[in-house]
Design goal:
This protein is an alpha/beta fold and about 240 residues long. It contains 8 helices and 10 strands. Helices cover about 35% and strands about 15% of the residues. The chain has helices at about 35-40, 80-85, 85-90, 95-110, 125-140, 155-170, 185-190, 225-235; strands spanning about 1-5, 5, 25, 55, 55-60, 65-70, 145, 175-180, 190-195, 205-210. The strands form 3 sheets. A 6-stranded mixed β-sheet has the order 6-7-8-3-9-10, sandwiched between helices. The radius of gyration is 18 Å and the shape is globular.
Length: about 240
């Protein structure tokens, strides 16, 4: 990036290879390039160098190849929940009738039954995030980027949403890349955790989360969970690159 004539490097020396169907979290200090990475993968900005390959095809600069959900739900306040959820399908040219037929069973199964015709400001924060995630899921891409989707929720709602997301992921087996500042959240959700250094963001480590699934509230108290948390905290405190 260039600002006031000065060149700022947000991200460099970062190579990732994500297997299909995996749940991968990316953690690192603020400003380390996590959102920049997501914007590159989503085709919203082009990298200065390097490639983004999806099933072997270079998708640099190509939007619409992945699903992308930001921390803010970005629901349109003048559209009902079901109308918000089908927005991606409409953009892809699917008729409203067909899109609603696809969306309605998901609303009923995943906690929004009876709220189809409500407006966003009539729902709680957690329910709005559910609607936003279902909209992203219904866009029907194999890879989904989630950029701190639960960061603004209270602790109790956040835990409920984490468990709900794991159920969604188990049902649909999408490949999920998840940005979070919460180490507990990263461990609880993930198969792998990528740790980035301070800006310019570099890949410091890849940590395998070898905790059994399915997971629940008891997972947080397991000895292996605690050891993984200590390991990740140590990595984030150390600014020097660590071996993989």
């Amino acid at each position: 990036f260039r600002k006031d004539g000065e060149e700022i490097c947000a991200l460099q020396d970062t190579s990732m290879q994500i297997q299909e169907g995996k749940f991968v979290s990316i953690i690192g200090p603020s400003g380390c390039g996590k959102s920049t990475l997501f914007n590159i993968i989503a085709g919203l900005i082009k990298p200065s160098q390097g490639q983004i390959l999806l099933d072997g095809v270079d998708i640099v600069g190509k939007s619409g190849q992945v699903g992308y959900m930001l921390q803010k739900n970005l629901l349109l306040p003048w559209r009902t929940i079901i109308k918000n959820i089908i927005l991606g399908l409409e953009i892809r040219g699917v008729s409203k009738k067909e899109a609603e037929q696809k969306a309605l069973p998901m609303l009923q199964k995943y906690g929004l039954k009876g709220f189809e015709n409500h407006f966003p400001d009539e729902l709680s924060g957690g329910m709005r995030q559910r609607a936003a995630l279902l909209r992203t899921l219904l866009y029907d891409r194999d890879v989904i980027l989630l950029d701190e989707p639960f960061g603004a929720l209270d602790a109790q709602t956040r835990l409920l949403m984490q468990s709900w997301l794991l159920q969604i992921w188990s049902d649909f087996r999408k490949t999920i890349l998840f940005v979070t500042h919460d180490i507990d959240e990263a461990i609880y959700l993930s198969d792998e955790i990528y740790v980035l250094s301070p800006r310019p963001g570099r890949l410091k480590a890849i940590v395998q989360v070898d905790l059994p699934r399915p997971r629940n509230e008891d997972t947080f108290g397991q000895e292996r969970f605690v050891k993984l948390k200590q390991q990740l905290l140590a990595m984030l405190k150390n600014d020097e690159p660590l071996a993989k």
